[in-house]
Amino acid sequence: QQLDMVYHMDMIAIIDIKKGSSIQSKQEGIRNLITGRIRTGIYSQRIPSLADLANETGANVKTVKKALRELLQDDVLTVKRGKGFYINKGPEHVGEIVVADIGIIQ
Q: Which residues contact 77 (CB under 8 A, 6 or more apart)?
């Protein structure tokens, strides 16, 4: 039942990104999607590639890159050249995330 809720919130986040009216809102949505997946354990070590995230969310690769850059600056992710983006902090250290209109999950 808890997995169903996580899946439902994940799908809402993706729909929200796809219908986002601005690059800024899509960027924020991607950030929230990634941090939400870290917090729920969907991502535990490495996150998908830029191209995979762009394909899944319907966002431009540049928009995904900007969202990932912010997560790097917040020390949530780290990058290993030629290998991809890795989670730098465990779920307990990732800040609040907002998922669509459901509210804040801590």
A: 34, 47, 68, 71, 85, 86, 87, 88
Instruction: List CB contacts of 33: < 8 A, sequence separation 6 or more.
Output: 10, 13, 14, 17, 57
pLDDT at residue 96 tops 80: no
Q: What does the alpha-carbon distance between residue 105 and residue 52 come to, in Å, rounded to a whole number?
A: 25
For strand 103-105 and strand 97-99, is the pairing parallel, antiparallel, or unpaired?
antiparallel
Tell me how long the chain is.
106
Tens-digit pLDDT profile for residues 43-83: 989 999 999 999 998 889 999 999 999 999 988 999 998 89
Number of H helices, E strands in the chain: 4, 4
Residue 6 contacts residue 42 (beta carbons within 8 Å): yes
